[in-house]
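INFO batch 0412 | record 1 of 1 | parsing
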Amino acid sequence: KTLSEVITLLKGEMNEVQA
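INFO prediction complete | emitting tokens
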């Protein structure tokens, strides 16, 4: 995976935790 893809996944995980 590219760095951008990893960042996107991390952001998605954080959004799920906050939800």
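INFO post-check: The chain is about 85% helix and 0% strand.
INFO record closed
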